[in-house]
Amino acid sequence: MNREEYVADADWHRFLEFSDKLETPFVVINLRTIKKNYIKLQSSFPFAHIYYAVKANPAPEVISLLAELGSNFDIASRYELDKVLSLGIAPERISYGNTIKKAKDIAYFYEQGIRMYATDSKEDLRNIAKCAPGSKVYVRILVENSVTADWPLSRKFGCHPDMAYDLLVQASEQGLTPYGISFHVGSQQRDIGQWNDAIAKTKYLMTSLEEEEGITLQMINMGGGFPATYTQPTNDLSEYASEITRYLTEDFGTDLPMIVLEPGRSLVGDSGILVTEVVLISRKNNTALNRWVYCDTGKFNGLIETLGESIKYPVISLKDGPETKTGEVILAGPTCDSMDIMYEDTHYKLPIDLKVGDRLFWLSTGAYTSSYASVEFNGFPPIKTYFMD
Question: How far apart are CA 69 and CA 361, in angstroms?
Fold first, then answer.
């Protein structure tokens, strides 16, 4: 929804009443929005198994809600695992999706009953075979997504399909169950066609393994990538679902393998509003056109995804309105670090009469905000999170 639709929404007024007396900075998460997003995703992909990417927002309130709705969980570390298990979630609903892990952590996961692991390297595969014998493994392949994804995930994760082929053969030889292939087209991916390329590579790899090695894979893990609502427009989830389903059907017909989705941002992003107070407004010289607006939170306390101005959050003020006069601003955080500038090249506009002490509302900040916040940089405590039912 656009800015006008947002402030006209009943939940916005409920949020203002809820948050009025809270001390900034903080994030408020609307659990109703997460429930609505999960149900929409589930109905859009009725054939898929959903594994929520816990790293997007690891709050117990969020995890418990999604568990009640039937979600499974993609885990990145033993610390996330402990949290999820402590909420009574069965290990059968958990996948260890991080390809970068210590052997002792693999062993810990195995002791806790986890039997599905991602990998993309020979050394990691050997560790899985040693520490989690007989487990299911799926290999992550490289997918180039640096242009059309707002937050790319290429280069660091995944391997070339040729290597994935070898790893799945070796998994079988080492007593593991070669279970599937995974990919991630990049977070906040605006080009639906990226899934088409990745699915085609996956189909070729699965067919080759079956015909040449007698290895039949059962799963495709398509990762995340579905968008939240930021300033740059994206297609509706229904269009993603329609096109991706068509890609799968074109390659696999009606006999689809197990399809796994690992949403994070698309489930929880739109549920959050980060509230910050204006600390200072200044200009760098007497004739400067742009104001510098310094907030009491920044890159190191919730807004790290503004790095490179990649994620462009909608930012609004209570002074906004149809007749409001606005001017361009540079938005920066409160710390003694020159990197702590959120938006300088992206020309945000805020009311001319904005004052120190006014609040700014950063919309769609339910994902990768509180979980990314620093512990004590410049002495500032981690940003607080509150929940609305």
Answer: 29
Give pTM, 2 decimals.
0.94
What domains are there in the chain, each with its CATH number? 58-263 (3.20.20.10), 269-388 (2.40.37.10)
Q: What are the residues facing 332 on neighbouring strands?
A: 294, 341
- The single-letter code of the amino acid at 250 is E
Per-residue pLDDT of the chain (389 residues; tens, 9 = 90+): 556 666 667 788 899 999 999 999 999 999 999 999 999 999 999 999 999 999 999 999 999 999 999 999 999 999 999 999 999 999 999 999 999 999 999 999 999 999 999 999 999 999 999 999 999 999 999 987 555 666 566 678 889 999 999 999 999 999 999 999 999 998 888 889 999 999 999 999 999 999 999 999 999 999 998 999 899 888 999 999 999 999 999 999 989 999 999 999 999 999 999 999 999 999 999 888 899 999 999 999 999 999 999 999 999 999 988 889 999 999 999 999 999 999 999 999 999 999 999 999 999 999 999 988 888 899 999 999 999 99
Please, are residues 76 and 56 in contact by the beta-carbon 8 Å criterion? no
Counted residue by residue, the chain has a size of: 389
**Closest among 111, 44, 103, 112 to 73, alpha carbons compared:** 112
